[in-house]
Amino acid sequence: MTTTADGLGRASDWDPTAPETFDSSHEVYAELRRRCPVPWSDAFGGFWAATRYADVVRVARDSETFSTAVQNVVPHVPRAQRRPPLHFDPPEHGIYRAPMDRVLRRGVVRRLEPAFAEAARELLGPLLARGGGDYSRDFALPYAAQCFALFLGLPVGQVLEIRRIGVAYSFAIQEMDRAGVMAASEELYAIARAIVADRRADPRDPDEDLVTSLLRASGDPERPIPHDMVVATVRQTIVAGIGAPHAMLGSAAVHLSRDPGLQDRLRADPGLLPATVEELLRLYAPYRVFARTATRDVELGGRTVRAGEAIAMIFPSANRDEAVFDDADRLDLERRPNRHLAFGRGAHRCPGAAMARLEMTAALGELLAGTTRVEPDGEVEMFNWLEFGPRSAPLLLVPRR
Fold first, then answer.
1. What's the pLDDT tens digit per position in 280-291?
2. Would residue 100 count as lying in a domain?
3. Which of helix, strand or coil describes residue 8?
4. End-to-end CA distance of the chain, in Å?
5. What per-residue string of b and e applies to 62-93 under the rule 16 or more CB within 10 Å gives b?
6. Which of 190, 229, 280, 332 could form a disulfide with 252 if both were Cys (CB 3.0 to 4.6 A apart)?
7. Structural contact between residues 341 and 77, judged by C-beta atoms closer than 8 angstroms
8. In which region does residue 138 sit, left (phi positive, over 0), alpha (psi from -120 to 50) or beta (all else)?
9. pTM beyond cutoff 0.85
10. 54 with 308: CB under 8 angstroms?
11. Does the residue 27 lie in any domain?
């Protein structure tokens, strides 16, 4: 039992730190939606969780009641300064989103689609040659790094180092290891500072380059972005831009490996791949740690959330809410509309949604085109609480001759 700041003693309704398999969390969330849709947990210092679609949307959209400026992830991360745009509420948040949205529109990132497909083919080659491997470790990780390197104009080796530090950072957060968190964060800040310094010395097209776009916004006479906030924005982006695709691609490949009928259908009609990607995003949204802090006492799902308490938005649960999605656990290519929350909702909706869709479509398209069969080949090992997806996903790949 945890005693909160207002002296209330609460018993945990669930344990988010329990070991997980590829399927187990969905069973837990279904039970919570039925029995206790806004559960309290005393893990990570104590927090609420929104598991139903309507509650998640309400928290995501109502920035006045549910602020991102105080605690925006669970566990609470110690920080020396706030990092845009995640740590800012509207309207200040929009100052940082505008230069990001400028370079992350579908019409802009679409230019990267051929390069993403080429990267996928090159990385799949060794796995096809040996008949399989660990898809998460041997493909999804380097592929996510390669795509982000292409987008940001960085060496792949540097992006892989960012991901290594990012994983250490996330595990330190879960272990509530303050010294480990601060050390990893400072490493990421050092990389961000170097990237910004390079772009300041050698600017690129601000309509295509994220850092140059942010630097140009720093000179806006009406709403200038301070230089340290440019660095902080890059620091925030380089972690999320690799972690989510890495986790999501592993989940998607495991799902395909367990559904040979879907594989055959997609090989016969690749035009179905975009609808498949949307359903995979719905079924396996890669984050559940994003949180808001109540600015006042508020009722949510029949529970009273006190001012100052954190509420995590469990996107993988909301996306399987039976009240919104018929036959919610089934991948349905005819699902219309498909208003999933994999990219969030409201002001903080993921700015990289278009790029993520392109990454997934290219990767899965090459996987299906290069094989006649994909099968599970061992036990899936999941990431920790902070990223929802496989850390290890052994697959058997039968190459197309």
1. 999 999 999 899
2. yes
3. coil
4. 59
5. ebebbbbbbbbbbbbbeeeebbbbbbbbeeeb
6. 280
7. no
8. alpha
9. yes
10. no
11. yes
